[in-house]
Every structure is written in structure tokens, then in C-alpha cells.
Amino acid sequence: MDRDAVVFNQYRVCLMVHNRTAYLQSVNASMPTFLNRIYVFFELKIEVNNIASSMGAHAERVTKMHRRTMTELGYDKETIEKAIPKNEPIKLIAEALYKAWELYSSSSAVILIVVEDQNQNQIDQKHVEYALEDLGVPVDQIVRRTLTQCEQCLTLSPERHLFLSGSRVAVVYFRAGYTPDNYPTEKEWAARLLIERSDAIKSPWIGLQVANTKKTQQVLAEDGVVERFVGHPRDAAAIRSTFAGLWAINGDDPVTQKLIKVTIGLGNKFVRFFGGTRITAFHE
Predict the structure, then answer these.
(1) What is the Cβ-side half-sphere exposure of residue 79, based on CA atoms within 13 angstroms?
(2) Which residues form a coiled coil (predicted)?
(3) Which region, left, alpha or beta, applies to residue 150 given φ > 0 means left and ψ of -120 to 50 means alpha?
(4) Regarding beta strands 167-174 and 110-115, do their DSSP bridges make them parallel or antiparallel, or are they unpaired?
(5) DSSP class of residue 166?
(6) Alpha-carbon gap, residue 101 to 107, rounded angstroms
(7) What distance lies between CA 117 and its chain's CA centroid?
(8) Cα within 13 Å of Cα(128), Cβ side
(9) Is 241 exposed, middle or buried (0-12, 13-18, 19+ CB in 10 A)?
């Protein structure tokens, strides 16, 4: 095993901040009664995202908007509390990052937020920064850089400490780096490699990101794959029952081509996801 392979597995702490879990709501209709048909609603899992945790600030405000709407419609507080649970993702994300910063045990170290060159989510991201400041991280120790800038200003010490223009980095919070577009040249790949080789706490580290790719999730949905990781058949079946169907559509084999034709004919029952690998999800 080469040195880099060893280094990749020497993380002291791994931080996982889930972005969101996506579901499709499905409906099963029972036999009709005298007056109507009884419908049973349930959710099928489509995907989980665990890099570039976004829209937390927006989600909080949408929750407040829904609560206010129900208040204006005359619902009492107890009903609103049951219907719309408290939703504070910014607080949770900031607390997780702050805890990682504390665990690194270097009060002068910075939190590096890796952002896109053209950043459309900076307003959402800023709320995470404000929450970190409220928790006690000095404002000048929360730094935003693109991967291109990281290649220019990051260095790695012999002890694998990561430094940003001379300041030690405790936590790297990726709000970019999840799509090939974020790596237009070898410089960006070199920056990511340097970060991964360091002892800075990553959110997420590369292994978790790869495990979370759309392709990996599609493979997990294939027959027999979940069963490899879940010992009891009943438990595996329970997990699989929450999956919507997931299929890759980038092959030229007869099965894939047939699936594409079926998808075109029943377009209202399929959702197409775009990414490194194109995935089709079936709504049962």
C-alpha cells in the first residue's frame, strides 16, 4: 500500500452533514367504499445528498411561512405544532461544524468553506457563517475560497497539517466540489488531493462523497446489493421497500434501450436526475 493510500485512512474525525433526503410521495388506492376510495400515502426514497449542504436557511423560512399561513387560517397552536414540526437546519449544521472545530483543539485554526467560482447560494451559506460566529468562531477564522484559490494558497506540512496562507485549517466545509464542472483544470484536482491528504476535518471526506454519488445509490438499488450489507433478509426487505426504482440509462444494451422506450411512453411515472451518471427513478 502506498503512502497516499495510508494517509487517506488516517482521519481523526469525519463530519457528515446531510443536505437532504429526496422522496416521491406514492399512493395506493384500496377497494372503493360506497362513497369514495380510501387512499394510503407513503414515501419512496429517491436519493440522499451529503455534500454542499444547502438551502437550510431557506427551509427555515419556508417552515415559518407555512406556520404563519396556518395561523392566519385560524388553526390553533397545538395543531400547527403537530402539522409542521420545528425546523432549524442552520442551527444543526453550524453546531456540527463548531463541534468539529472544537475537536480539532486549535482555537486559532480556521474553518475553510470551499465555494464555487460563480456562487448562487452564498446568501444561504452566509447564514451558516453567522450561526458559527454566534457560537464563538471569530469572524476572521471563517474563510471562503474556491478550489482554484485553494490550489494557490494551501500548503501541507510534514505532519499533514493543512495551512491556508499560514493559518492552520481545522475544518473544510465543501459547498463545491461535487460536480466535474468544479474541477476545470488539474489545479482544482491538486487542491482537493491536498485537502484529503491533510488532517483537517472534512465535510464530507472523499470516501463518503464517492459512496454518496448517484451511481452508487443506483447500484445499491439493484437486486441483491443491499443484502450484502444487511444480514437479516427481513431487514433488507424492509429497507428495500422504501426505495423507488433506480436505473442507469447511459448504456446501449437492449434492457436499457427498452427501459428508455418505456420511460418515454410513461413519462408521468418517471423522474430523470442529472449528474455524473444519469439516473431514472420510477414512481410506483
Answers:
(1) 9
(2) none
(3) alpha
(4) parallel
(5) T
(6) 8
(7) 20
(8) 30
(9) exposed
- For 198, other C-beta atoms within 10 Å of its C-beta total 23
pTM: 0.77
Angle between helices 122-135 and 89-103 (to 10 degrees): 60
- Give yes or no for a contact between 197 and 156, defined as CB atoms under 8 angstroms apart: yes
Instruction: Kindly tell me the burial class for residue 187, based on how many C-beta atoms sit within 10 Å of its own C-beta (0-12, 13-18, 19 or more).
Output: middle
Residue 226 near residue 240 (C-beta atoms within 8 A): yes
**What is the enclosing helix (H) or strand (E) of 169?**
strand 167-174
Q: How are beta strands 37-49 and 20-32 bridged, if at all?
A: antiparallel
Cell readout for 277 is 451518471
Per-position pLDDT tens, the chain of length 284:
333 333 334 445 677 776 667 766 655 544 444 444 444 445 666 677 777 767 788 889 999 999 999 999 999 999 999 999 888 889 989 999 999 999 998 999 999 999 998 888 888 889 999 999 999 999 999 999 999 999 999 999 999 999 999 999 999 999 999 888 999 999 999 999 999 999 999 998 898 888 878 788 888 888 888 888 887 888 988 888 887 777 777 777 777 777 777 777 765 666 555 443 344 444 44
Mind listing the domains of the chain with CATH numbers? 1-212 (3.40.50.1760), 217-279 (no CATH)
Strand partners of residue 20: 49
CB 60 within 8 A of CB 24: no
Length of the chain: 284
